[in-house]
Amino acid sequence: MKVCLLNRKVIMRYESIPAELFQLNRNRFARKMKPESIAIFMSNDRMPRSGNTAFPFRQNSGLFYLSGLDQEDSIVVLFPDCVQEDYRELAFIKRPEEGREGASLSRAEASAVSGIEKILWTDEWNSVLHGLILLAKRIYVNIPEHDRLLSDVPSRDLRYARLLMDRYPAHKFHRAQPILRQLFMIKSAHEIALIRKSIDITGEAFRKVLELTRPGVPEYELEAAVTSEFIRRRAKGHAFSPTVASGPNACLPGYIANERTCGDGDLLLLRIGSEYANYGSGLSRTVPVNGQYSPRQRKVYESVLRILEQGQQMLVPGITLEEYYRELGGRAESELIQLGLLDKKDIKNQPAEHPARNRYYLHGTSHHLGLDVHDLAYHYDPIQAGMVFTCKPGIYIPEEGLAVRLENEILVTDEGPVNLMADLPVRAEEIEELMQVSVLSEQG
Question: Within 18-93, where are the H helices?
Fold first, then answer.
């Protein structure tokens, strides 16, 4: 977050988020806390890079969700049952350095952003916290629990939880992440608006890539165009490392080097997503470098598109992800048979734990999206209205140097799935037409 003082109004790269979003989130969290409990949330560390430099700061998703405070050295405390009413929710922020007051939030600004009235300095933290903990019986700590990552690097929350457990062994400790996991899954109207904004920015970057893609263009130049468009439109940057993969590179799902020169006849696989106000998006498209799909490329493309369209329609309340994956897996098998990559004998003889389709259908099709690209979620709960999912099928054929991946973001509603990327071209003829218009415009 970039902050300056202008008539006491907070100025940020992204547009101001109504504080009511964070007030709503705190109320939702507090209702799930056990009686006489205090919950503590720490900001992320500024991670060292080398020498005296650090990686760009990115706020802890849980703390941001509850407060909107987007700067380092911040702490949020929730104590709904506190006998001192003005300490039932409070935040600590770093004291501005003399002569650099505009470089970080003032207490008034932090209150305006978060809706938290009680804002203190972090150098007051230890003395205030000790008194509050002695009034509580239980302590919620925000230890990272993402099922896709077991990090060897202890987070600030984890380090502080260990200190608290040593200092207050008679208290009962509880995990904040299971509550956050439940809350993160169901997006409020404000959150959906932020995701839509991120998608809009990502879509404009994709259209820019369509204008620039042609034989002889290096992948990194297209990546640079995406980055430029993100920053120009007030995104913080990429929500994840982008994939700009041409030709055989497209067959590597984790490819991010983006260093090859695009060749005539290649497909270009894009996986890009902006991060706006800490909310992310993810778009995957596969386009012909020369503006025209070959018959084989078109056939594979149409197969992936059919899986995408079926997957989107299945994201409705009540279905489980297990059912969703099983049915889409069957669809993928059918498409692979039609493409001549598998036959019915392969399917009949496949072991249950190693489906034959996994040779070409290399990753899962959907996951939750929000403050994190792989958002916190309970994967075994039935799908509910208010959830936002990716839908990203892909077929990878290394022996042909050919891969196609498509991805849209889907909002689940009681009235049916809403494709949040419906305005972005996805059909092969749409892609070809836009690329042809770009070439004609350049020639004219």
Answer: 19-31, 61-67
